[in-house]
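Researcher: Structure prediction, please.
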Amino acid sequence: MEESRIHKMSQEDAPQNIHITSSLSNAGTLKVSLSKAGIRQEAIVYSFEDFYAVGPLRHIDQSQYEIERYMWMTNHMGYDHYFVNGLHQISSMKPILESIPDHKIVTIWAGNNTHDYIFVRLVLHLLRGVRVEVQIINPAEEYERLPASDRIRTNEGNTDIVSLNQLTTEELAQILVQSSGNTLTEEERAQYADEWLDISSHSEMLRVLTEGKLHFLAEDAYDHLIMEVIHKHYINIHKIEDKYILHKEYVSAGLLIVPILERYPELMSVNLISYRFRSLIATKELDFLGVPNLTYQYYVKPAKV
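Model: Predicted structure follows.
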C-alpha cells in the first residue's frame, strides 16, 4: 500500500497539492470540502491518526518507540484503533512524506489545540530534507477572514473554533478557494522541527495548550479539577433527568463528559476524560456501578460526599 501511494503521488499527471491533516475525521471533512469547492481532483489528502496531547512521544518516528507509544495508548486510553488504521501511523506516513516530489505544494492543516500544535511540528520534523513548498493553514484564523455571509456554522453559543472539523464543509470550501496559506521559510521549517525535538524530549505524559503556550504536566494534573466538576453536578443531582441516575445516587459517567470539557476545553478528548475517570475509580476517589469502559455503560459518584 505504501508503494502504491508513493507511485500514485509521483505520477506525471498526479495532483500538485498535498494536504495533510491530523486525523481521519479531519481528512474526511477536507475531502468533502474539496469536492464542494470543485478542486477534489487537484489534491491528495493524507492524514495521521493519533492524539498527541497524551502519552510518550520520545523517538516515535522510529518503529520501536512508535509501537511502545501505541501500547501505552491502548492500555491507558483504550485506543485499540491504532492497530486497525495502520496506513495513518507514522511508520506508514514517513516514507510517503520523504518521497514527495520537489515540485509539489504541501499544506498542513493545524488548528488552535494541543493535538494540532504538536502534530504540525511532528510533520515538519518528518519533512526535514524534503525540498517542497510547505504552507500551514489554520482553520480558525481563516474562518475569521470569511465574510459574514459565508459563515453558516451552527454551533450554539460562542464556541471557539479550535479544529478543522468544527467548520461546515461549505465554510471550508470557501476557505479552500480564498486562502493562499502561510508559506514557511527554511528558517521557520527548521524552528518547527527543532520544537518537535524539544516537545518529544519531555517525560510528562499530559500536554495542554493554553493561551498559545504548551504546558507539560503529570497525567493526574487535572484530577482535582475534574472532581470539582463532578461534585458540582452531584450537589444538583435532583435536577438531573432520571434516565441518567441509578439508585438515586449514581450519575451516568457519560453525562459528566460535556461539562468537564466545557470547563476545561484544553483537555479535548472524551477518551482522556474516561481514562481519568478510571484512574479516579482506582484511587477510590470515585465509586462506580457498571462496567467502567464506555462512559454510558457505568455510573459514578464521589466517594466522599
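Model: The two ends are 55 Å apart (CA to CA).
Researcher: Thanks, that helps.
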